[in-house]
Amino acid sequence: MYITCLDLEGVLTPEIWIAFSEASGIPELRRTTRDEPDYDKLMRWRLGILKERGLGLKEIQEVIATVDPLPGAKEFLDELRSITQAVILSDTFTQFAQPLMRKLGWPSLFCNELVVAPDGEVTDFRLRCKQTKLSTVRAFQSVGYDTIAAGDSFNDLAMIQASKAGFLFRAPESIKAQYPEIPSCEDYGDLLDLIKGAMV
Fold this sequence. Notes:
Elements: E1 2-6, H1 16-24, H2 39-53, H3 57-64, H4 73-83, E2 85-93, H5 94-103, E3 108-116, E4 122-126, H6 132-142, E5 146-151, H7 157-162, E6 165-169, H8 173-178, E7 184-185, H9 188-198
Parallel strand pairs: 1-2, 1-5, 2-3, 5-6, 6-7
Antiparallel strand pairs: 3-4
């Protein structure tokens, strides 16, 4: 039995922090897990910038409301779910993801949670568990699933490498160059073919 585990941002939706960076005019917030492998370090840095600028959850959610899935993402996900079970494993947060899940047809999502003060300041974040993506893939494997995984960033590598089959999707050249052994593609049709091929 197979279950496919997909990253969210960069694979099915635009990067939320990049969208917020552009809308807020704060170029530093363009930094993502494609650039910084240490997620805790990245998030602490982001929260520091938000506090410094007096920005909170409301401002981020207003931007997220304007973000749509990447072209073809919903159709890809619909077709994938017609042939196998699929879940999204993301380092995003429940407070960010809901509008995007609605636009994607409410797929299953495993993600994290922000700690938000009554005034809307984002004060901290809570990870679902340590090494969230890898831990979840291993949990699926422990109950009898063969996992297939796809993502685009440093924080996807562990789940990709731990799965029966794993793929880089629209990953930056720097990551593809460091991990040439991981099959890579740029198109949803090609990704679907790779996933189907792994299930044979």
